[in-house]
Input
Amino acid sequence: MYYTTEEYMRLRFERFARQYAYSAKTVEEHEEWYARTSSRLSEIIGLTRALPTEPHPTLTERRRYDGFVRERWLIETEPTVIMPFYLLVPDKPNGSAIINPHGHGGAKDENLGFRPAGIPGGTSDGTLVERDGSCSFGVMMARRGCYIAAPDARGAGERREGSHQGDGRERENSHREMLGAGICLGLSPIGGMVWDLCRLLDFLLTIPEIDPGRIGCAGMSGGGEQTIYFAALDRRVSLAITSGYFYGFRDALMLQPGNCGCNYAPYLYETVDMGDIGAMIAPRPLFIESGVNDKLNGASGIENVYSQVKIAKSAYSLFDADDRLVHSVHGGGHVWVGDGMAEFIEKYL
Ligand SMILES: [Zn+2]
Output
């Protein structure tokens, strides 16, 4: 016999969850709700505590590939916080750009298909791995004329904290340690990651070939998480794509508390659920991809995704923009399939 707290957590969730639940019936109510909710969400994830600084962008490397040039940049996002990222500069720019954050067990190199070489710091030897003519989403979009900006998230890739550094550990991250270190300072990993993506967007706005109204964000898993928080809180993001990350908090996060540490922030469940964050993106185009057999959907499976999409949908309907919210469901697990995404981007970005 064990006397656990799980039932108590469920009880608290039933009683206190979603105090900022989406319920707008007019555009005016939506805007009022957005202002209150974005303010509270920014506060609880620690976004409002970020310390602005001069970015000092530094170009460290340029390398040519078929259809694009890969640049490696460093920018300072907060005092002493350095973010390395790749910028894929297309040979034939079409005016659009996509920020492409990676997942929990990854980094910018594998996200784009560059083979990590075990070099200290986890940087790539630059080899682009393309199997059977298929390439990563980022490389595909760069070849279609889109600028791609792919950073290492805090605690991942070249930004791993001490206990996760070293060759052969490129798929580890320090998000749980960062949660532990930051929570008593009012910080959370996702708050820091959103801040970094905002600064990356600032950087993209300095590139004359990029149209400020045509900057999107797309990511898988932890990259999908970063995408929806970022798009929800920074309305300069014109289009969002999340794959493998759009499920109800109770089943997918509270009852699976061993997930990556960047999923959690104080007061999160009391504030919103995933669908409310989706509603914050409305009426900007939002593409959600889910796998029926994705274990991260939680015990109730794909139903735990449908219920959240329904919340987001109500916001798109309010704006008469139902076609701008696409939910694409595949039969697989926690994987990026990508069907329909390029067409969605072509149509809306
Ligand atoms: Zn994470």
Summary: The chain is about 35% helix and 20% strand.
